Amino acid sequence: MNTIKLAPLLLIFVEVANKRSFTLAAKKLGLSKSAISQQIKRLEEATGQQLLVRNTRGVILTSVGESLLARSELLREQLSLALTELDCVKDQPAGSFRVSIPPLFDKNVLVPALRQLCIEFPLIKPEIIVTARWQDLIEHSLDAAIFGGNLKDCNYRALSIGKVTEIFCASPGYLKQYGEVKSIDDLSGHKFIQAPWQYNALELFNPEKTAHWHITVEPCAITTGVDTALQMALHDMGIVLYPGFLAEPEILRERLVRVLPDITGKSWHFYFIHQYSGDKPRHVSRFYQLFCHYFKTVHLF
After folding, report:
1. Domains of the chain in sequence order
2. What is the pLDDT of residues 41-100, one digit of tens each?
């Protein structure tokens, strides 16, 4: 497969996929609608996969198309950044780059984003503060912060990253020993592992958010470690209400089973907080792009 010839096709695919429209993509790229259609057809033939489905409302991505989009967007962003840097006369960013981040994201999102950032900006020195607490940017000399939940009243700028939702899960070994969980009422008869952010009553919802419950479950174990709660569940110690994007890879490996699949816990919206009123420094903007990219990637599960 000639990746050099495929690169322009991937960039066209990203535009069509993001706009969900051949017409809007053609207008943005200055090409005819038929030319756009031909390029997408070439890409599908080269990959041997159907990526898009047309209907009366526009364009729908197949599951393969969704996966390809998440990875192709990074290619487009890197190309855009490379062209921007050619025209940029500013000095290469250097020195400390301080960011606070919740412990949920340090492994699967932060580390790959930082690795790519340091490749593109080799003179910066990342300083990462991992904490679930609000960190004031000025007080803690931060360039940026990742924060989830209700934003504090402040003069900082907040850019959306996405939502994280809790799901119930347990190991097959635990369920074999203690039995299935068929309803919310069954939770009181099971061992529950309390994660760091869970206090008092649990807030539970149906998928449509039309039903809402507050229940109190006596924990069999309490931990302040995010990964520790997951490891306890993996070692047959109980049921855990855990962020879906962290639990679902273990579900795919069949090391965990989703319990009460029609019930979720709370959802948190996460934001990228910064204090720049005008254009952000290039490395700060790029870090936001990379963080969003890897956040979307882990949510493909």
Report:
1. 3-87 (1.10.10.10), 95-162+269-298 (3.40.190.10), 164-267 (3.40.190.290)
2. 998 888 888 999 888 778 889 988 888 888 888 887 877 777 776 665 456 788 999 999
Question: Is 26 in a helix, a strand, or coil?
Answer: helix
Report residue 278 as tokens: 């005008």
Pairwise CA distance, residues 13 & 23, whole Å = 13
Does residue 102 contact residue 146 with C-beta atoms inside 8 Å?
Answer: yes
Contact 159, 271 (CB under 8 A): yes
First-to-final CA distance of the chain: 27
The 10s digit of each residue's pLDDT in 12-25 is 988 998 889 898 98
- Residues in contact with 36: Cβ distance below 8 Å, sequence separation at least 6, in sequence order: 12, 16, 22, 25, 26, 29
- The pair of structure tokens assigned to 252 is 């795919």
Q: How far is it, in rounded angstroms, from Cα 222 to Cα 169?
A: 16
% of the chain exceeding 70 in pLDDT: 95
